[in-house]
Structures are given as structure tokens and as C-alpha cells.
Amino acid sequence: MKNTLIAAVLSLCTASASAQLPAPLKTDITTRVNAMYPWLDTVYKDLHANPEIAFQEVRTAGKLAGEMRKLGFEVTEKVGKTGIVAVLKNGAGPTVLVRTEMDGLPMEEKTGLPYASRAKAVSNGAESFVTHSCGHDVHMAGWLGTARTLSEMKAKWKGTLVFIAQPAEEIVSGAKAMLDDGLFKRFPKPDYAFALHSWPLAHGTVGFNSGPVSSNSDAIEIVFKGRGGHGSAPDKSVDPITIAARFVVDVQTVVSREKDPKEFGVVTIGAIQGGTVGNIIPDNVQVRGTIRSYSPAVRAKLLDGVRRVANASAAMAGAPAPDVQLISGGAAIVNSEALVAKTEAVFKDAFGAANAQRMPAMTASEDFSLFVNEGVPSMFFFTGVYDPKAVAEAEREGGKPIAFNHSPFYAPVPEPSIKTAAQAMSLAVLNVLGR
Ligand SMILES: [Zn+2]
Ligand SMILES: [Zn+2]
């Protein structure tokens, strides 16, 4: 009886797994992506050589809008400052959102590639080089490739595509800007949402997971207040330097002694500013840091602990209460288990089980979570960008490391990286559309 039940359940699972995309549709996607690659290569290298920073993506948005109009999408520009929304309605069926980011980073590219960026922009009041060192140019090329593949295959599916190009992901502001500008009110609200991120994996591979895949991020901004005085007479002052020093050390016990050791959580103090010279006790010291976590419970525990240790450090010195600000920088992306399972089957089938694997969550944060938290079942996944041999070498003890995202040497291999991105995203989207 038990065995019969298990067999029945197993056959049900197999039935739903085999109800995935029919093989000819998969071949169709691959053929089309291969055929359109010269176009993607040109667009990619142009975007790579001309990056723009957060909320300045005017040229980039114009370029994407133009290409999407040629593909038959109805395009609205300036949604959330520089964002664009491209809609393609194709009969009754699910609405699927596909997101790319558009912004580069204010840093100098050092890859030496023939299409390397020499672009500059004003960032925080100072001129800086600009580079696509997070791979958002790969995402844009993959996004265009997916849009073209699905528009060419229009006869094979039913539903609505909502392709969004989001500004300012790097400063975790663009998703909010688009939502505040009516993204889910002025345009069809999606039944599913997808986004991908390039990652230093081997090209041709995809990585994913269900549950949290990026971290909650909260910023720490504390001002410890003392009473300034002469360095030779500490008894006539309250020293905020020793208070800050004690805080920086003691706050780590919140992580090591209070948090469940099985759960992810990080507190990093990245900046301390106070004082001018050695013989003056300053009036105050500023401390800045970041708190990362996956679960809401750990997040609450760390926020509470940081605040408590800051207050206690000041109280121990008889100092006034510090000014503690803990600023929310975004929630973790939590992938839909059902959507990931459905997509995993099609990825494994298309790329082979060895090239489509579950991977741990990243400790970085991403504002794609804001779309997910509007109640949209979503999947955020990763695609590889490096020669598999280089990745294997980097994994070898003492091997040559490969450049991670945000490195001035981050250099995706264009063709296989973009093809995999376009193919994977087309498969994922087509898999949930009506047919
Ligand atoms: Zn980034
Ligand atoms: Zn990024």
C-alpha cells in the first residue's frame, strides 16, 4: 500500500516534470539566440564601452527603448527617473516580468579589453571613471536576447511580457523609484517575475536556489558623544574614542554570542571618524557599518544588539546617549520554491544537470526584492561568465584567482555568457507562459 502510494506520487512528479517545455521549443530558442548573436555582441560592446552611473542611464535607456520598439514592444520611458517599461501583449495568459538593471559603477576599468570603458561621470560631486564591473551590460544583452527570442516565437505562447530596465540598482534605489512611479499600477502586475545576475561561475552554467538568495541589508550610522578636552587631562573630559573602540570590538559578540550560529549574519564596521591630532580628546566620533542577514528573526536580533551595545558602550563611560541610526537598505530576495522547482527542471534538461545546479545564497543585497515583496512569485538566478578552465584553476589550492563582480578586472567572456543568459531567461519565461 505504502509502496503503491509512493509509486503514485513519484509518477505524478515525473508527469509534472515531463510536462515541461517540449523539446522543439528548446531547440527553437537555442537556434534563434545563436542566429541573433552578432546583433547582441554589437549592442553589448557598445553598452560596455559607454556605461552610466545610477539615475544617469539616459543614453543606455534610450538605446534599450529603441531596440525594444523595433521588436514590437510598447515602450514607456522615464518610469522611476531613467527606467523603462516594455510591454508585449499576446492573448490571454500569465503576465511575466523580466528585469534588467542598467547602471555601471563609479570606478576605473583595468581589463585592457579592446572595448573597455574610458567613460567618466560626476559621482557624489567628484569626477570618476565609470565601468560595467557588475555585469549589468551582460544582463541587458541577455534581456534584449530574451525579448527578441520571445517576440519571434509569438505564435508559440500566450500571455503578456513586461520587460523592465531598472535604473540605480547599485545604490539600491531604482526598484523603489519604479514602484513609486506606479510600475504595478500603470502597467500589468506580473504573475511571475525573473531576474538574473552574472557571476564568476563557468560560462554555460546557471546557479539558483529557493528561499533567500541575497541578504537583508541595514546601514549603521552612530555618533558617540563625549566632551572634548586636553589629551593630558582625560579626567576633565569624556572620551568618545575609547567608547567607539569598545563598541567596535563588543558589537561582534552580538554575532558570535547572541545569534544562532547556524544562521547567516554579519556586522561590519567600515568607517570610524573622530579627532584631529594626538593631544586633543574630540567631542564626538562617527561610526559607520553594515548589517547583513537572511532571516527576519536574525535581522531583528542583530539590529537590537547593535543598538544595545552602542548605548551600553556610552553608558559605561558616563557619556550622553549616542545618536544611533539603523537605516534599512533592502530586504533579502526570497525565491518562490514552486517557481524554482519548475524552472530547475527545464534548466537541467537544457544545460545538463552538471551545468544547472543549486548554489548558496549570496551575502550581497539586491533591490529586486522589492518587486518580490509586492507578492509576486519570483526567481533570481545566476549565470556564469568565465572560461571553465579559469574557474577550475581559481578553485585549485594556490591557483590564479578570477575577478569577482565590482573588481576593476571583471571581464565576462561575451559570447558564451550572453548566449547562456538569453537562453536561460527565454526558457524560464516560456516555461510559465500559456501555450
Ligand atoms: Zn553590483
Ligand atoms: Zn549587480
What molecules are bound to this protein?
zinc ion
Rg, Cα atoms, Å: 25 Å
Q: What is the tally of beta strands?
A: 18
CATH architecture of the largest domain: 3-Layer(aba) Sandwich
CATH topology of the largest domain: Aminopeptidase
Notes on the protein architecture:
With about 425 residues, the chain is α+β, with helices and mostly antiparallel strands. It has two domains: about 5-215 and about 330-430, Zn peptidases (Aminopeptidase), CATH 3.40.630.10; about 215-330, Alpha-Beta Plaits, CATH 3.30.70. It contains 13 helices and 18 strands. The strands form five sheets. The chain has an eight-stranded mixed β-sheet, with helices on both faces. The two termini are about 35 Å apart. The site of one zinc ion has 4 residues, from loops. One zinc ion (ZN) binds next to loops.
Summarize the structure.
The protein is α+β, with helices and mostly antiparallel strands and about 425 residues long. It has 13 helices and 18 strands. The protein has 2 domains: about 5-215 and about 330-430, Zn peptidases (Aminopeptidase, 3-Layer(aba) Sandwich), CATH 3.40.630.10; about 215-330, 2-Layer Sandwich (Alpha-Beta Plaits), CATH 3.30.70.360.
SSE map:
Blueprint: H1 2-18, H2 23-49, H3 58-70, E1 74-79, E2 83-90, E3 95-101, E4 120-123, E5 126-129, H4 136-152, E6 159-166, H5 174-180, H6 183-186, E7 192-202, E8 206-208, E9 211-212, E10 216-225, E11 229-230, H7 240-250, H8 252-258, E12 265-273, E13 280-281, E14 284-293, H9 296-316, E15 323-328, E16 334-335, H10 337-351, E17 356-358, H11 369-372, E18 378-386, H12 388-395, H13 414-432
Parallel strand pairs: 3-6, 3-7, 7-18, 8-17
Antiparallel strand pairs: 1-2, 2-6, 4-5, 8-18, 9-16, 10-14, 10-15, 11-13, 12-14
The protein binds zinc ion (2 copies).
